[in-house]
Amino acid sequence: MFRWDAQVVIALAFILIGALLLAGNLGLIVFDWGIVWSLALIGFGVWLVWRAFQPQSVCTVPFGVGNSRAVLDGREIRNEDFSHGLGKFDLDLTRATIPEGTRRVRVFLGMGEATVIVPRDLAVRVHASVGMGDVRVFQNKDEGIAPSVDFESDDYATAVRKLDLEVNAGMGEVKVLRGE
């Protein structure tokens, strides 16, 4: 799934500026930095407006190092993104409020161990993957280079409350477990 984030926008800006410089050097256009700055400001403004209308996460754990645990007691889950750079990251959704409808949670870990605990009675669809390491989703397991596990609970299609969960790590271990 493609996501517009700051890295993509910055990369596209560099590509655009590079293309303009190349076209100017080849004589295809008359290159003027005033045009570049105008286009950059317009593009940045459009991106800010677009971003303002995107669903925002209630809770985001920014990149970090070390052990981290997201505390979600009583918080309502809608569309959430969690990211952690290096170390152990635990996400316990058993005490969070998950309203009716389909909710999305994404967890990204650079290197280490990511553990996500979902409520026992919640219908879930899970995609878990690691660049290199181990993946365990309930009783399903895969390991090695680029292991991944896809899981959908039997009642997912008919459930009133459901969760789409994506857990990715560069290297290490990903575990998705059922809570008590």
Features of this protein?
single chain; 180 residues; alpha/beta; 2 domains; 7-stranded mixed beta sheet; 2 helices; elongated
Can I get a quick summary?
This protein is α/β, with parallel strands linked by helices.
Explain what you see.
It contains two helices and seven strands, in the order ααβββββββ. The protein is of the alpha/beta class and 180 residues long. The protein folds into two domains: 6-52; 68-178, no CATH class. Strands 1, 2, 3, 4, 5, 6 and 7 form a seven-stranded mixed beta sheet that branches. A hairpin with a 2-residue loop joins β4 (123-137) and β5. The relative contact order is 0.14. The model has no long low-confidence stretch (mean pLDDT 84).
Number of domains: 2
- Number of strand segments: 7
Let me know the largest β-sheet.
7 strands, mixed
Gyration radius, rounded: 21 Å
Indicate the proportion of strand residues. 35-45%
Oligomer: single chain
Given helix and strand content, the structural type is: alpha/beta
Query: What number is the mean pLDDT?
Result: 84
Measure the end-to-end span: 31 Å
Number of helices: 2
Return the string of H and E elements.
HHEEEEEEE
Based on Cα principal axes, name the global outline: elongated
Spans of at least 5 consecutive residues with low confidence: none
Helix content: 10-25%
Topology of helices and strands:
Blueprint: H1 6-25, H2 33-52, E1 68-70, E2 79-92, E3 101-118, E4 123-137, E5 140-145, E6 148-152, E7 161-178
Parallel strand pairs: 1-2, 2-3, 3-7, 4-7
Antiparallel strand pairs: 4-5, 4-6
